[in-house]
Amino acid sequence: MSESENVSKNATPQEETKKETTSVEDKYTWMVRPCEIYKDEYNDCTSIRARFHQYFVFGEPINCKQWNTDYKNCKKWNTYKSKEAYVS
């Protein structure tokens, strides 16, 4: 019997739950970009040049708040591993 199988059989229910929770988080962690990308996207979206382009293409400036929200959630996730930030 391998060591990993032995450890798995001796794991407590709390450890099993922790493994399941961790695996769910790990499953989607690859989708979270580095926080600087969200900040750059927000800055690009709110720049004068982008606002002019948005007005020209759409007739009005677009809402850039989601980039800022994503940046804040990314910071919360990286700093505190906040589940609330992870799911929003």
UniProtKB/TrEMBL annotation:
Its main location: other. GO terms for cellular component: synaptic cleft. Residues 1-14 have a biased composition (Polar residues). This is Synaptic plasticity regulator PANTS. Residues 1-24 are annotated as: Disordered. Belongs to the UPF0545 family. It is found in: Synaptic cleft. Residues 15-24 have a biased composition (Basic and acidic residues).
